[in-house]
Amino acid sequence: MTSAALLGVLAWAATVLAREVNQRGHVMLARLALVLAPLCAAGAVWTAWFAVRDLDPVSHVYPAILWALMIWLVVHLAAGIIMQCYCLAGSLFGKVTPRYDADLRNVTLYWHFVALKTLVTAAVLGLVPGWLP
């Protein structure tokens, strides 16, 4: 689950990088970051699924809770991927510019939440099972 956390944080960092470099007028670098960000987020989705794929959610409440947490994380990551692709498309079609970047700023704000959620979920899925007898 640590790789999902790492990839989620990398997706967040790429989104923040895109916002910062776009604001400074480096549009091509911002677009590159907006290509990298959803790829990292998709990797986080993939690795999060692998973290719980062997658990049977109907066998006990604990695996069911872990599955629910993973699904909730994947839903948020998927929404973030859509938002990042929307900003990339907006940049390519001239709607997200260094001067008019509200969409990118709002998506970055959302990714602050997703990064924190990814870290907390990764801690619960990866660390908490080791604490139980």
TrEMBL record:
GO terms for biological process: respiratory electron transport chain. Keywords: Membrane, Transmembrane, Transmembrane helix. The chain crosses the membrane at residues 28-52, 64-89, 109-132. The keyword Transmembrane helix applies. GO terms for molecular function: cytochrome-c oxidase activity. SUPFAM superfamilies: Cytochrome c oxidase subunit III-like. It comes from the Bacteria. Gene3D superfamilies: Cytochrome c oxidase, subunit III, four-helix bundle. GO terms for cellular component: membrane. This is Cytochrome c oxidase subunit I.
